[in-house]
Write a structure and sequence with these properties.
It is a single chain. This protein is mainly alpha-helical. It has 14 helices and five strands. The strands form two sheets. It has a three-stranded antiparallel β-sheet with strand order 3-5-4. It has a two-stranded antiparallel ribbon with strand order 1-2. Helix 7 runs parallel beside helix 13. The relative contact order is 0.06.
């Protein structure tokens, strides 16, 4: 098949076509109704109680524990946590972690087409970077790439979260509403709440999907400015060569995010806003006090019935 032709039928479609052709091969079966060959729901084998399963798990050998964890990693599409394994198998967390360490030693870059990564608080089997081009060709999918604006916005939110949209736009110098909306729809950003200041601006942060997208264990796995500067010249050339044309200058962006002057300016703005809010509250209190004084003069309260002390 040439590259200009569209994708052919899937394996499921080919199997369905083959089954249909085989069904027509025997004319004597044309008038026969097919029999039910699947067990009706409700009559299948009952699931083992969890307590019994956990008791069996305690007797398993380390090799069997590793095989079970491998099977669950293969079946689960999302990152698999140690707690997920414990809840489904009854295996002790210490044994699960040991099995994960052994599996990660076997499935690692350079020796296997499948690698085990610790991402988003769990473990996930992923295609090795060495085989990624061939895997994409086989699946006929394009690599997911983000625009420069999206990467800049994500970097600012990731390093400064919780952060408001005006703060993001102050660093980028351009309106970021459309980009942030797109990142919210892609579930790379999420709303964390509202900031306690005038106007109550919305606070944004990154999501679990963000960690999965960039293969990060947690936010602490983000590179620091010192780590970025300590890259050797050879590594920098590799990064610049491998990065697509639309990827921003991350060195300048990270340096800007870590600029102490910018941080001090933002902190000063927050302090000025808090001071203005306190002054506004004091002005409101003074206005309320004045209103009550004027009201007491113009509309005095009537004396209580029976008169005051000493009156007849």
């Amino acid at each position: 098949m040439s590259e200009n032709q569209g994708p052919g039928p899937t394996a499921e479609e080919l199997q369905a076509l083959q089954a249909a052709e085989e069904a027509k091969a025997d004319p004597s079966l044309d008038e026969v109704e097919p029999a039910a060959i699947e067990v009706p729901e409700g009559t299948a084998e009952r699931e083992e109680p969890f307590e019994k399963l956990a008791a069996q798990a305690r007797k398993l050998s380390p090799e069997k524990v590793r095989a079970i964890v491998e099977a669950l990693l293969f079946l689960y599409e999302k990152p698999l946590s140690v707690e997920d394994v414990r809840l489904s198998t009854g295996l002790e967390p210490a044994r699960v972690r040991k099995a994960l360490d052994e599996i990660s030693g076997s499935f690692r870059e350079g020796i296997s087409g499948i690698v085990l990564h610790e991402v988003a608080g769990g473990w996930q089997l992923r295609t090795s970077p060495d085989a990624s081009d061939f895997a994409r060709r086989f699946l006929r999918v394009k690599p997911q790439r983000l625009t420069r604006a999206a990467l800049e916005t994500l970097a600012i939110v990731a390093y400064r979260q919780p952060v408001t949209r005006p703060e993001v736009e102050e660093i980028r110098g351009v309106d970021s509403g459309a980009v942030m909306k797109a990142l919210l729809e892609r579930r790379l950003l999420k709303i964390l709440g509202k900031k306690e200041e005038p106007g109550r601006p919305i606070l944004y942060g990154t999501t679990r999907e963000f960690l999965e997208f960039f293969a990060l264990k947690d936010l602490a796995s983000l590179p620091t400015l010192r780590e970025f500067h300590e890259l050797s010249e050879e590594h920098r050339e590799i990064v610049e060569k491998e990065a697509p044309a639309e990827v921003p200058n991350l060195q300048g962006l990270v340096a800007e995010l870590a600029d102490p002057n910018l941080r001090a300016a933002l902190e000063k703005g927050r302090e000025e806003g808090d001071a203005a809010l306190e002054e506004l509250e004091r002005a409101i209190d003074r206005a309320d006090s004045s209103t009550r004084s004027v009201k007491s003069v113009l509309d005095p309260e009537p004396p209580p019935e029976g008169g005051g002390e000493g009156q007849p």
